[in-house]
Amino acid sequence: MKKNLEKFVAIDIGTYGLRLAEVRVDDDCVNIIKYSSVDYNQLFKDNAPFAIKVLNALEIALINSGTKEKKAVISLPGNNMFESFTSLPPLDERDKDRKKLIIDFEAKQNIPFSMEEIYWRADTFCDSQSYNHLENCALISVNKEKYIEIICAVEEAGLKPFLVTSANYALLNGFIACNPPPKSQDNVLINVGHQITSIILTSQINDVDGLKYAYYFRSCPIAGSSITSQISKELGIAEEEAEKLKREHVHREWKNQEDESEIVYTAQKLARNVISRIKGEVNRSISVYRAQLNKNKPSNMIITGRGFPESAEDAIKLEYVTNMKLSFPSTLDYVINPNIKDFSSILPIIGLAEMASNSDAIFVDFCEKKNTGGIILSLVKGVVKVISIPFKIRMKIYLKEN
């Protein structure tokens, strides 16, 4: 394992809250020693600008964790990203310039936004045992304005971004670290968050450079907040009350329905209906993955995320899946703070640690920028517009108005 960073802060920025951990890499041992999780709703109302939520949550997480590290490895929330997968014709190694032109053309065809409004990255992989030998290409993009807002918040909190990637790459690398061969042959990972459900499929492949991973992921807008909205609508209660009901009664194993009240029973049924819709999206994603990469149906299915209720596990299980257990990391020697109880929440942190410390990690990096006197100038696809009002002033204006 080649170490890129030996000490850093890993930050998983979600739509509902963020998780922060101090990571230290010693030889082949990855230590997750300090950890803090902060929900945005503890700080602001829902109408607060997202960057302000991130800044305040970061400041609290840094205090609670006690970390003094400044280098930051960051994953961006799924609702800020757009991900598309396509195939490239087989090209000779000498056709690198032509390959770049083809990827650029595919990005313009597959990303449904103006190229001036986004940053985008591409990652390619090829299965030498595939019948058509096509090279697969992942196209990942992020809105420039949203990206800059989040990076401003991170830097305002006193941190220095070293690597910035998408939440799905963090989950993918965390999953691979936790499921070494032969477990990692054909898998589906479902992470049910607050607003987004990430569906990640991965298989081992024989690349020209050796054993690697093929992957496909998709972000689905049916998640934990969908359950809350459904409970609120059907029971005629406020969203806050529905969220409380969901977390206190729906987010646990459903053992004896006769022991539950009618309201709880109805809420659990509604949750299962939403999870069944997610199952439909999972099946569609698997069909696309198998058709595009000629892969088998996944035999391993891992479900993570705070948006997933334990009472609905059987509503999402696929008939051909044989294993639904998430194991601790074993490809590396991980030492995880014993105070971290929710292992599914730490999975993206493990993935970020992999990307910062392991040269074999799979990811795209958006962190190509320089900070000049508080004005961020992007080196990706030209210079972006300057944010004229300093972040602190904008935050003070918001706090005064609210």
Overall number of strands: 15
What's the main sheet like?
A: 6 strands, mixed
Physical arrangement of strands within the biggest beta sheet: 8-4-1-2-3-13
The SSE string, one letter per element, is: EEEHEEHEEHEHEEEHHHEHEHEEH
How many angstroms separate the termini?
Answer: 49 Å
CATH superfamily of the largest domain: ATPase, nucleotide binding domain
CATH topology heading of the largest domain: Nucleotidyltransferase, domain 5
Instruction: Count the domains.
Output: 2
State the helix count. 10
Which secondary-structure class do the elements indicate?
A: alpha/beta
- Give the radius of gyration: 21 Å
Helical fraction: 25-40%
Strand content: 25-35%
CATH architecture of the largest domain: 2-Layer Sandwich
Shape: globular
Q: Which stretches are poorly predicted, pLDDT < 50 over at least 5 residues?
A: 327-332, 369-389
